[in-house]
Known about the structure:
Elements: H1 3-11, E1 27-31, H2 58-71, E2 75-79, H3 89-99, E3 102-107, H4 114-122, E4 127-132, H5 137-144, H6 149-161, E5 166-172, H7 180-190, E6 194-199, H8 204-208, H9 210-213, H10 217-234, E7 239-243, E8 263-266, E9 272-273, H11 294-300, H12 302-305, H13 323-326, H14 331-338, H15 354-366, H16 383-390
Helix pairs in contact: 2-3, 3-4
Bound molecules: iron/sulfur cluster (2 copies).
Amino acid sequence: MSDSALADRKNAPQHAPAASGVGPPLWLLAELTYRCPLHCAFCYNPVDYTGHRDELSTAQWLDVLQQARKLGAAQLGFSGGEPLMRDDLDTLVAEARGLGFYTNLITSGIGLTDARLDTLKANGLDHIQLSFQDSTQELNDFLSSTRTFDLKNRVARAIKAHGFPMVLNCVLHRYNLPHVDKIIDMALAMGAEYLELANTQYYGWAHANRAQLMPTAEQLREAEAVVERYREEIGNRCKIFFVVPDYFETRPKRCMNGWGSVFLGVAPDGAALPCHAARSLPGLAFPNVKDTPLAQIWYDSDAFNRFRGFDWMKEPCRSCDEKTRDLGGCRCQAYLLTLDPANADPVCDKSPEHEKVVRVVREAAQRPATLAPGEQPVLFRNDANSRRLSDHPANGTAPANTVR
Length: 404
Ligand code: SF4
Ligand code: SF4
């Protein structure tokens, strides 16, 4: 975070928290649109995104930014879909800078022309996160179902030429884990300050493609060893983050640092979300910024309070001496795998349903370690598949996979 953003944050008016002692949100994820020119097999947008077409207007987004800043948020991610699909992105960036946010553009790079970079720079954008699907054209283009590898390379050069700090982001899975060394080489050659190697989290589209994407334990071990070797070799030249997939663990992650703890997401249609996968959960009415003030949403809404604290927990979490460490894990994963979001995340080996996770890992070990693109059918993110999955009760649990 920049010094000016920190200074401004101290001065930002704070909403008085409720008696519960809930602090303010620290970061705001503005998902400006679900529109995207890519069709990634692991897309983190909800599989029923076609059912949420309405987008907030420019004025409504400006109001969200102002309210979030007053509430205390200091970090702001512009995301999507592809946020560059919004013509008003430059206006929103300028407003965010004026309010004192530290701003990050999370993009596939499609539409990031020199002219757009000039304007974003002039309007005060701080940081850009550019996604690649792989270090090879073949796999990058297969996994996004587009021909975008060369364009992304040009965009990466342009980002650096405009003087932006850059995070290269690559989602990892069984197809590209054997390429981790080449992906790191690519990031170094591009001058990225950070490389985020994010192993796939199995929600939404990734859950629908779980059988195809789930790696073997051996692939993961080898990739981690490669990352360690590079870290020793390159020092601070590029900081590499390696996010381990929790299916291979026996304790879950402290998801979003706790429900309603620091993260506030606003979906393209204005739904406020405690995590970007939360709208897949049943029985929760997510408040909308169109008709409810952000402070009321954050402090008082049922959706944001439902999984705060410990009272909602069932056994074994309720009496567990580790509950303050992981807060029972991920509510979305608990729902996807056990059909009850208040259950323990079954990644935990104390969960009576942990065997479901073990079975997935075991099945992954029985498939050939490396797959050529197209070798198994993959369900790509597109409108037709979204409409088909929207009819299914547990979003992301595809009745049958299809090739696009
Ligand atoms: S994951 Fe791929 S398809 Fe999904 S929003 Fe990002 S670039 Fe678009
Ligand atoms: S039982 Fe619940 S609280 Fe305890 S370690 Fe497992 S997930 Fe965490």
